[in-house]
Amino acid sequence: MEFDRKLLPARLIRRYKRFLADIELSGETITAHCPNTGSMLGCDAPGMPVWLSEHDNPRRKYRHTWELVEAMPGVLVGIHTGRTNGLVREGIESGIIAELNGYGELRPEIAYHNGRFDFLLSGGRRAPCYVEVKNVTAAVEGGVAIFPDARSTRGTRHLHDLIALREDGNRAVMVYCAQRSDVTEIRPADHIDPDYGAAMREAAGAGVELLGYRCEVGTDVIRVAARVPVVLP
């Protein structure tokens, strides 16, 4: 995924009200949209270098959107959760996400019973495959990324929905997309949301596939790069 325009380097002053951030850009303080509803654990400390996209749409309240942060020296993290589905779709269509190869059709935003899933893959020799995608930004020492970074009843419900799909004879997959290159494995954040961690283990036991992928993140392009294991201690 390439950015339409060159991103603007800036520095974070503070993030607040979940969707807003005050940022120092070219010596001035501006307010930018923060497209991430999580806690952004480890990614929103005042003073961190950030990169912004700029928009000309007069109907937008905020001209700038926060896209990247340098969470550690040399480690860029994509914090825009709205881009994650596009990244995973590119990864599927390019064959990088090899586990999801072999289908003839990919459809986004598919309703099923009382739920809605990010993708439906069909047209292959295997059962229809429903795919849900989660954006991972939080990491701890040693390349271990964790999810979620805040309590997520919605995320837990998605796992239960995937279990129901699997019980109906479908293929069900959860893709954890880490928008940072320093990740070597992904684990449930049991200390933050034990219910989600329990649901991950239940889903794995029920045959739901938990796939982890890390991205290469740059100021010009972000792309899915390689699979990393999802570890359930």
What are the defining features of this structure?
3 helices, globular, about 230 residues, 6-stranded mixed beta sheet, about 15% helix, 2 domains, Trna Endonuclease, Chain: A, domain 1, about 40% strand, 6-stranded antiparallel beta sheet, single chain, OB fold (Dihydrolipoamide Acetyltransferase, E2P), alpha+beta
CATH class of the largest domain: Alpha Beta
* Low-pLDDT residue intervals, each spanning 5 or more residues: none
* Helix and strand element order: EEEEEEHEEEEHEEHEE
Return the domain count.
2
* Biggest sheet overview: 6 strands, antiparallel
Determine the CATH topology of the largest domain: Trna Endonuclease, Chain: A, domain 1
Strand order of the largest sheet: 3-2-1-4-5-6
Instruction: Compute the CA-based radius of gyration.
Output: 18 Å
Query: Into which percentage range does the β-strand content fall?
Result: 35-45%
CATH architecture of the largest domain, please?
Answer: 3-Layer(aba) Sandwich
Number of strands: 14
Give the helix/strand class: alpha+beta
- General shape: globular
- On the 0 to 100 scale, the average pLDDT is 95
For the record, give the distance between the C-alpha atoms at the N and C termini, rounded to a whole number. Answer: 33 Å
Helix content: 10-25%
If helices are DSSP runs of H or I spanning 4 or more residues, what is the number of helices? Answer: 3
